[in-house]
């Protein structure tokens, strides 16, 4: 029986000793003789290999192809990451997919890219009534990219998977594939995800905020989120203002918020203040990353936000205001913020592409240059560099380079301190000496502070176990 199965297997990223990048394309095709086809036992041995942590299924797969894959699977497949790409599904093939998922108890991350679920009217309801995804206890991340026909929706499959797991991270990118009703169903399903702390929605190529409105009840609720990315959503003013008000009130632990390209203004040439209110963002003291880029916000709106950020304690390390209108008021407010801020590391405020005149006078440029000279934390600054006079360009670059070097020196000092802390523990474990050049080599690898803490937690027992392991393997 002819089957069609395309499978890509990858070795674990941490095992560089095994050449196990393997591609099995068109598992059985009419161009391959029976003697050349891999046996099920060979495929079973490959799938059961302990280094196979990532599995990708691509292209059109018929029912016999799914059945062959399932027969080759061990009862407990070690796969942690599964990707389905351009795979068409219907009622019967979805059941086979669920059978395959049932043999992946270690599955942690699932990605669906251009996966189509095609069903008739009656088959759709039969699928909801009789097809259930097995419980996926470790599944924490679900990524969905939907770009096919709106008449063939992946949302029924998504709803089944959401009912079988408790996610921590969910990402949905929809390019006119999921219907408004599908978004409504998905929005309701979010309420049943008690452990969700990171949500990314991208509802692109829509010209009304109606699809986004379906998620408002959930987003304005109290489910705690650590990261919220609404890039590409046509939010609209009527949704945006109450959304920000609710987020500032309910999301006290939100660390990352992206509102890039959200159609917050419909007239890019508008110079007057608009009804959008972004000031509640300044009240979100837990924010570390804020992205308001590509929204054509007027200068008064962004300048007012910068003034409020200066008044309120902030944890911001990354701020992106590019793609909005820039003027003297914006640059002056940015300079005033940088005079006192000691948390910002990366800052973008390049103007909208439609803006040809910034009004960046020598006075406001001098304010900005002096502010950056005083600031000790900023390491990246993205502005309209081609418009800067050379003198300001050199001053700003010099300050950024100074800060980067100071941070690097501080990091190296921290590594040295951490290694010095480890040294007495090594001596206690029986090591008579610890070569200084080895310490310097460890520091020179560019370790992070987390690495330093890991080094400082080494115990004599752990060191002894490591030495015993090396002795056994003859190193």
What does this molecule look like?
40% of the residues lie in helices and 14% in strands. The chain is built from 16 helices and 16 strands. It has helices at residues 40-47, 63-72, 91-101, 121-130, 155-162, 180-190, 210-213, 216-219, 237-250, 299-311, 328-340, 362-374, 390-428, 436-444, 449-456, 460-472; strands at 7-11, 22-24, 52-58, 81-85, 88-89, 109-113, 116-117, 141-146, 169-175, 198-204, 227-229, 256-258, 289-291, 318-320, 346-348, 380-382. Strands 2-1-3-4-6-8-9-10-11-12-13-14-15-16 form a 14-stranded mixed β-sheet, with no helix packed on it. It has a two-stranded parallel sheet with strand order 5-7. The longest helix is centred in the C-terminal third of the chain and has 39 residues, at 390-428. The chain is globular. 31% of the residues are buried.
């Amino acid at each position: 029986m002819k089957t069609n199965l395309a499978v890509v297997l990858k070795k674990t990223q941490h095992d560089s000793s095994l050449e196990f990048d393997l591609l099995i394309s068109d598992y059985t095709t009419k161009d391959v003789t029976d003697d050349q086809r891999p046996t099920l036992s060979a495929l079973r041995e490959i799938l059961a290999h302990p280094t196979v942590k990532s599995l990708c299924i691509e292209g059109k797969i018929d029912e016999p192809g799914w059945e062959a894959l399932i027969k080759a699977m061990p009862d407990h497949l070690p796969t942690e990451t599964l990707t389905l790409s351009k795979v068409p599904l219907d009622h019967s093939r979805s059941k086979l997919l669920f059978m395959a998922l049932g043999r992946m108890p270690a599955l942690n991350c699932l990605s669906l890219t251009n996966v189509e679920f095609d069903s008739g009217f009656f088959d759709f309801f039969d699928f909801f009534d009789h097809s259930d995804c097995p419980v996926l206890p470790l599944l924490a991340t679900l990524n969905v990219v939907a770009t096919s026909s709106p008449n063939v929706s992946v949302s029924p499959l998504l709803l089944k998977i959401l009912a079988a797991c408790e996610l921590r991270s969910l990402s949905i990118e929809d390019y006119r594939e999921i219907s408004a009703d599908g978004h409504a169903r998905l929005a309701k399903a979010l309420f049943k995800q008690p452990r969700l702390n990171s949500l990314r929605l991208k509802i692109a190529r829509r010209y009304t905020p109606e699809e986004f409105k379906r998620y408002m009840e959930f987003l304005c609720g109290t489910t705690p989120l650590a990261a919220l990315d609404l890039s590409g959503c046509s939010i609209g003013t009527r949704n945006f203002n109450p959304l920000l008000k609710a987020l500032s009130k309910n999301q006290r632990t939100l660390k990352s918020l992206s509102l890039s390209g959200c159609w917050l203004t419909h007239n890019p040439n508008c110079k007057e203040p608009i009804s959008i209110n972004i000031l509640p963002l300044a009240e979100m003291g837990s924010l570390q990353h804020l992205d308001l880029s590509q929204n054509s916000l007027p200068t008064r709106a962004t300048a007012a936000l910068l003034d409020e950020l200066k008044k309120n304690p902030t944890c911001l390390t990354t701020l992106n205001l590019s793609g909005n209108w820039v003027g003297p008021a914006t640059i002056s407010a940015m300079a005033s913020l940088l005079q006192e801020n000691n948390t910002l590391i990366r800052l973008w405020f390049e103007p909208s592409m439609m803006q040809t005149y910034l009004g960046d006078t020598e006075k406001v440029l001098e304010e900005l240059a002096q502010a950056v000279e005083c600031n000790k934390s900023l390491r990246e600054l993205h502005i309209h560099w081609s418009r800067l006079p050379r003198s300001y360009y050199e001053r700003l670059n010099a300050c950024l380079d100074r800060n980067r070097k100071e941070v690097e020196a501080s990091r190296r000092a921290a590594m040295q301190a951490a290694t010095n802390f480890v040294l007495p523990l090594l001596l206690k474990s029986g090591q008579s000496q610890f070569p200084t050049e080895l310490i310097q080599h460890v520091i020179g690898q560019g370790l992070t502070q987390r690495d330093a803490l890991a080094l400082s937690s080494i115990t004599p027992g752990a060191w002894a176990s490591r030495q015993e392991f090396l002795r056994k393997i003859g190193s």
